[in-house]
Amino acid sequence: MTHTAETGEATGTKDKDYNLIWYVEACLSNALRMETYIQDAEREKDTDVAELFRKAQADSRKGAELGKQLLRSRLGS
Questions:
Q1: Residues with Cβ < 8 Å from 52, sequence gap 6 or more?
Q2: Are 10 and 61 in contact (CB under 8 A)?
Q3: What average pLDDT score do residues 41-53 get?
Q4: What's the rounded Cα separation, in Å, for the pair 41 and 56?
Q5: Inter-residue long-range contacts of 16-20, CB under 8 Å, 24+ positions, other chains counted
Q6: Among candidates 12, 30, 38, which has minimal Cα distance to 67?
């Protein structure tokens, strides 16, 4: 299957910029979801699972920060 070149005509945003915006939103959304999962694990006193979700949350926050830095440099502050 060939990739169709969207180039931002439908969204008004170049694909690479749109993808970066999507990535930041996905990381932030995942960090928020992990907060709920951490609380669920802690309520069950499952520290192993809570720690796994804390690490996942930290990775998501880091991804969001890196993505936001790139957005700032490309789209202006």
A1: none
A2: no
A3: 98
A4: 14
A5: 17/71, 17/74, 17/75, 20/67, 20/70, 20/71, 20/74
A6: 30
Q: What's the pTM value of the predicted model, to 2 decimals?
A: 0.83
Which pLDDT score is estimated for 8?
80
Rounded distance, CA 18 to CA 72, Å? 13
Tokens of 16: 């690479």
Exposed/middle/buried for residue 63 (C-beta within 10 Å: 0-12, 13-18, 19+): middle
Residue corresponding to tokens 């990535």: 23
* Residue positions counted in the chain: 77
Write out pLDDT tens, residues 3-41.
667 778 888 888 988 999 999 999 999 999 999 999 999
Q: How many CA atoms lie within 13 A of 34 on its CB side?
A: 19
